[in-house]
Amino acid sequence: MQKVTLKLRGIEQVLEGEVNEQGTVEIQGIDYELDALPVDVPVNGTIYGTLLNYQGAFEVLEPAMKEAPYKNPPKAPVLYIKPKNTFISSGKPIPLPEQVEALEIGAALGIVIGKTATKVSEKDVQEYIAGYTVVNDVSIPHESVHRPAVKEKARDGFCPIGPWIVSRDSVDNANDLRITVSINGEVNQENTTKNLIRSVEKLIADVTDYMTLYKGDVLLVGVPENAPLAKANDLVTVEIEQIGKIENRVMSEQDVIGGDTV
To answer: Membrane-crossing residues (predicted)?
Structure first.
């Protein structure tokens, strides 16, 4: 049984539950099918994405990193922010902007911070983690890493999150979790957090060496290389072993207002 916390749409109270082997969720003694639960975004802090933290993703861009203006790979974690306007829950539509053919699907493990973290050592990291969640770090395909890709990564609805937060103690090893992306039921990408350059512990230690993370913030471990593309009307499923899965359909931006269908 995995212990989880979750929120339901229209209810401010954070609920506690347990996920059993059959995939149902027990809340206050009652079993629910996940598809029957109107889950909401389970986090409310700042979400920080991490670039180039999968070995394969680093290798793809390594030649460009040796060119101007930087001429060397970064030595510290490269972060960006997914602002609150990007947050949507599992089941909500992902808006496809006009004149964009497809979106990159960025499957990411989200580390949920449990208490204020500043200059945390690797050996102490676990006590600062509340749990983990599934994040789809959606973006418009782009090549440049020399400037913040705000227009490509920070659009409305570009960060599905959920369906819940799995407690830290319910996860055997966050550095060895299988990640799968399926589009319309067909597996398009498989990877594992074993391929991280910086482990969960190393990443938090390196980030908190120069900035503070607060309770409720979420640090994404990164997105694997060869992110699959999803087009209008595609159903996207991001699943992380021991954490859960989120499903969202890509829909034309004209048919979506603030993450909801017209």
So the answer is: none
Q: Which residues contact 12 (CB under 8 A, 6 or more apart)?
A: none
Nearest-angstrom CA–CA distance, 119 and 204: 9
Say which residue the tokens 């990640």 belong to. 179
- To the question of domain 40-261 being in CATH 3.30.310.50, the answer is no
d(CA 236, CA 116): 34
| Residue numbers of the chain with a pLDDT score lower than 70 | 58, 61-74, 144-148, 257-262
According to the model, what pLDDT value does residue 59 have? 72
- The closest alpha carbon to 130, from 25, 3, 244, 1, belongs to 3
b/e per residue 119-144 (b: at least 16 CB within 10 A)? ebeeeebeebbbbbbbbbbbbbeeee
Q: Which two tokens stand for residue 101?
A: 């053919």
- The residue ranges of DSSP E strands in the chain, in sequence order, are 2-6, 15-19, 25-27, 30-32, 47-51, 78-82, 87-89, 94-96, 103-104, 107-113, 129-136, 159-167, 178-183, 186-192, 218-220, 229-230, 235-240, 244-252, 256-257, 260-261
What confidence tens digit (pLDDT) does each residue in 187-228 have?
A: 999 999 999 999 999 999 999 999 999 999 999 999 999 999
- The per-residue pLDDT for 146 is 54
